[in-house]
Design a protein that fits this description.
The chain is of the alpha+beta class. It has 2 helices and 5 strands, in the order ββββααβ.
Length: about 100
C-alpha cells in the first residue's frame, strides 16, 4: 500500500480510501495495510483536528419576575407596588462566567 504522506491520523480502522469507504482498512499510523474489515454501516472519514482552545463566556442577566410582583401587588391591595417599581428601576444583576475549552 502507499504511504499517506505523513502521520495525519492515528493508527486504527478507517473507511477504505481505495474502495469508496464500503469497508474499513487498517491504518498503522504511517501506511494503509492490506488488512480490511467489512463495514457494517457507511463510515465517515475522520477530520484531523488540531488542539485548539476556545474561551466560552456566558452572560446571564436576571430580570425581575413580573408575574410574582403582579400577584403580590394584588394580594397586598397595592402595597407591593412600590417594591415592584423599585425592582424594575434598579439595575439588573449580571452574572458573567468564563471557562476555557480545549478541543
Amino acid at each position: 500500500m502507499q504511504a499517506s504522506g505523513g502521520s495525519r491520523y492515528r493508527a486504527g480502522w478507517y473507511p477504505d480510501p481505495y474502495n469508496n469507504g464500503r469497508q474499513l482498512r487498517w491504518y498503522d499510523g504511517n501506511v494503509w495495510t492490506e488488512h480490511t474489515y467489512a463495514s457494517p454501516t457507511p463510515a465517515v472519514m475522520p477530520v484531523a483536528s488540531a488542539e485548539a482552545e476556545a474561551t466560552v463566556v456566558t452572560v446571564v442577566r436576571h430580570s425581575p419576575d413580573h408575574a410574582f410582583h403582579f400577584i403580590m401587588t394584588i394580594c397586598t391591595g397595592g402595597l407591593w407596588l412600590p417594591v415592584w417599581i423599585w425592582v424594575s428601576i434598579w439595575p439588573r444583576r449580571t452574572k458573567v462566567t468564563t471557562r476555557t475549552v480545549r478541543g
